[in-house]
Amino acid sequence: MEALRIIQDEHRNLWRIVITLDKLLADSVSDATIDVAFFNSVFDYLEHFVDKAHHPKEDDYLFRLLRLRSTAANAALDHLEAEHRAMPEALAALRAKLALAAADKMNTHAFLVALGAYVGTLKEHVRIEERDVFPLAQQVLTPADWAEIDPAFLDNSDPLFGSQARAEFRELFHHVATLAPVSVGLGAHSAGELPPAVPPQNITHEVLLSVSDLESAYGRIKALKGISLEVRRGETVALVGANGAGKTTFLRTLSGVQPMSAGKIVFEGEDISRLRADMRMRRGICQSPEGRQVFGPLSIEDNLRLGAYTQPKTQVEGDLEKIFTMFPILKEKRKLPAGTLSGGQQQMLAIGRALMGRPKLLLLDEPSMGLAPLLVEEVFNVVKALKAQGMTILLVEQNAFSALAIADRGYVLETGTITLTGSGRELIEDEQVRAAYLGM
Ligand SMILES: Nc1ncnc2c1ncn2[C@@H]1O[C@H](COP(=O)(O)OP(=O)(O)O)[C@@H](O)[C@H]1O
Ligand SMILES: [Mg+2]
Beta strands of 2-153 (E only): which ranges? Predict the structure, then answer.
């Protein structure tokens, strides 16, 4: 079922573009100037990806075999295939309307109307596939079917869907992201190397961080009342809890910027309870703080360099390039003050800055806080990508569902006390957690 994962990953990228277009359509007034370069890059992406690679593969493999196994989706498949055939022409018509609008403002309205119709069709198309077709495919297709479908999607030398073609899609997606108006976000890493479906088998049983009976107080008010928690090397551990539960206090205590009144912190076998904050950073505990806290007047590049202040100078340039590869938008804007970035981009910067310290344990304090849903997903994709690269992560979130969904294990924190722990999946399925945090 690898193919399904690839399709769904691509749908997510497509969805981001679609939502961006939706937002632009909602914002645009009739006399708005049309950003031709941006729309052309979107259309290039759609043409290359959707029309040339994605759709033919679906028709030739997934849909064909699905028809053999079940008739239940035939009507939906007829509809989808007809749309697949019609979409290139619709896109060409849209490009023509864009050219007219670029030449004469009078034609802007007609372009926006046509764009709205196209986007509506695309959305419904993705919805039908996700809602009606994929669940059926999962049910009725046999392992032999998948053995035929998957290689078609995974074939790395395939000119239409191989690694070369995918690299081009990524380029195009980044191009779209770079040109998208800041107000709608999309400016960060998202179309990067797709994370593998199964988590890498790099979780060891080696305990990297072990916290026992940790207490911390603000004056007479105990914010942490005896926390015990473990993170193994390679793990992503989520610490979820409501506002005021003590999540930030806990991370700050780990980093050493918040005093502890009892308990013990052991990192890589060493008791670091009394170690100064900068020494903990040197040991590899690096934090992306709540509310990002980037230095607004300082350039993006200098913000990143700050994250490396405990590191040998010789590695900084190379690390900087790595961060720029991961977050192309930061490279694009490297010389600009960090304060000019959107909220989502500042979050990428805060994570990038923490990575510049070469963390062995990355602490993320509510990276999704205050971001629009589209960007929340982008941020979690970044966390997923880091996890796939083998980073050990302690992720603190109020957004319990998203955090637990990508975590290997999780802890639930309530007013300074751990009340529940288990695998990410167990906690998501736990009725108490669902009622308290997931709103269902
Ligand atoms: N600087 C502070 N002074 C006094 N109390 C604080 C301070 N920071 C946090 N607290 C209190 O400690 C508790 C935990 O806060 P915090 O760690 O920020 O929670 P969370 O990050 O889970 O929202 C809350 O009751 C909060 O009011
Ligand atoms: Mg907090």
Answer: none
